[in-house]
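Pilot study result, target chain (386 residues):
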Amino acid sequence: MLSGAALLAVAACGGGGGANAGDGGEDTADKNAPSAAVVTIAPKDGAKSVATSGALKISADKGKLSEVEVEDSKGNPVPGKITSGGTGWTPAHHLAAATTYKVHAVAKDSEGRASAKDTTFTTLTPQNTFIGQFTPEDGSKVGVGMPFSVSFTRGITDPEAVEKAIQIKTEPSVPVEGHWFGNDRLDFRPEKYWKAGTKVTVKLNLDGVEGRPGVYGKQSKTLNFTIGRSQVSTVDAKTHQMTVVRDGKRIKKIPITAGAPGTTTYNGQMVISEKLQVTRMNGETVGFGGEYDIKDVPHAMRLSTSGTFIHGNYWAGGVFGNTNASHGCIGLSDVRGGYSKKTPAGWFFDNSMIGDVVVVKNSADKNIQPENGFNGWNMPWDEWKA
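Predicted structure:
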């Protein structure tokens, strides 16, 4: 009896213990089993001369991506997003050239078990590059008409990629759109003149952008500029007067002379792009032959690339407020040498800044072309965005 009872007890203990151990062992095995998820990263680990766009691809099979980190050797992250329900990840923008990147990606299978993969690769080193020469400069204060303008050193054949690489944020926020003039200039502006006091931040992320086949950008720069007070001056070529309006209030009325018959002044909205205390104006440089060559034009401010200025005039006598006598520029009474701030031209020069707007009306001429200077305001907003 004792041996039978003992045998029964042993059997019972053995049987009961075996069942429990088997159940617990299966749970433990499930939790410790390898993840079914498979992470795939292209390019392969250690790859060199990788393309800056389109080459980086991260995906998950039999699972979903839960974590993706891509950063350069300095620890700067590459933003991106998980797509296709968790099975893919794409970068938000192109990669920089000649840069080593680290990739860390994690995917989880249907049981929540994680699978990770880590790789590194290096992007190509371009043989041909371009840069963007921009205005206004970092830290500058400009008038309400000043666009952010970039002129590229090589003609761009992929404008969408280049434009995407330039981000503009404003405070207060306002929609800003870019417009291409030809294949080498891109201007950005809001629908209407900037609001006075607006702070503008521009990120030029051109490093690695393939602007044309085999030609890559090499700039990565953040810059800021501020919009100053609002000043818009309206020149009436018919009445020979200019009205200066600052922050919505008329502060000055100045007699002027505009372009004479045959050499009339453009109509339209023009932006001051350059200020020169004294400069030389030679008719030969703008198609007027030897009709004039004045070596000391005072208080000159450029309104167009083609040579339209608003400037001081000490040689024309009593034309101001009475008749149009210039070769297309807008003249204000001044003294030789431009030493005085009290003359009409001196006052206007001293009270103007790069980016201020000068509007010409009632001239017997056409509207100025938007690309002739920073004068995109003469293009309708729908056309500008298109």
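One observation from the pilot: Residues 1-26 have pLDDT under 50 and may be disordered. A full batch analysis is planned for the follow-on phase.
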